[in-house]
Amino acid sequence: MKKHGEVLTASKEVDSMLDLLKSEFSQPDKIFLEPSCGDGNFLTAILTRKLKKAQDEETFFAALNSIYGIDLLKDNVIKARKRLAEIWRKQYKTVLKKEPEKCILNKTEEILTKNIIQGNFLELSDYRNLNIDVIIGNPPYQIVDGGGTGDSAKRNKNSL
Ligand SMILES: C[S@@+](CC[C@H](N)C(=O)[O-])C[C@H]1O[C@@H](n2cnc3c(N)ncnc32)[C@H](O)[C@@H]1O
Does 7 fall in a domain? Predict the structure, then answer.
């Protein structure tokens, strides 16, 4: 935990932050990015809000396809994808009153594999080509040498 500043955000704080962005949920395809997404606390809350108004398959896919996340740790990424897939599947079943077919589930998996990725956000440049509407999250604040007067404090031009 200390090495990667892995302190996850409680849903109360996530919700309070997202409440400040209500207008960004007026369209399901507004693009959200969480650059240090952990296991998906922001991503899942964003998807839940986006899906609230979804009534058809197209909107369900627009919602999922407009959420991007990155984390340094592979296990976080896998967990975040799983959580998002489960929320999407459950809501799809509730609203459309049927289990999503295999080809639909494959499509959601493809989107999640493309959009929720393992990597160092500071070294990725692909995101500059996306028309991102909202960047939100709780970045790492713990640095390897403890911060303060350490080397990392002098390198803060690279920090998230
Ligand atoms: C404070 S936690 C917050 C996690 C999540 N945003 C949340 O609020 O629940 C910070 C996360 O940033 C990740 N992280 C640290 N440095 C990163 C980097 N350079 N690029 C991407 N993710 C990073 C860590 O693995 C950790 O999951």
Answer: no
Residue 6: inside a domain, yes or no?
no
Q: How many domains does the chain have?
A: 1
Q: Which amino acid residue places its CA nearest to atom 9 of ligand 1?
A: 8
Local mean pLDDT, 10-residue blocks, the chain (160 residues): 73 97 94 97 98 96 97 97 98 97 98 97 82 93 55 49
> Is 55 among the domain residues?
yes
| CATH of residue 130 | 3.40.50
Domain containing 40 equals: 16-158
What is the C-alpha to C-alpha distance for residues 50 and 27, in angstroms, rounded to an integer?
8
Identify the pLDDT of residue 158. 46
| Distance from Cα 92 to the centre of ligand 1, integer Å | 29
Binding-site residues, ligand 1, Cβ < 6 A = 4-9, 34, 36-38, 41-42, 70-73, 76, 120-122, 137-138, 140
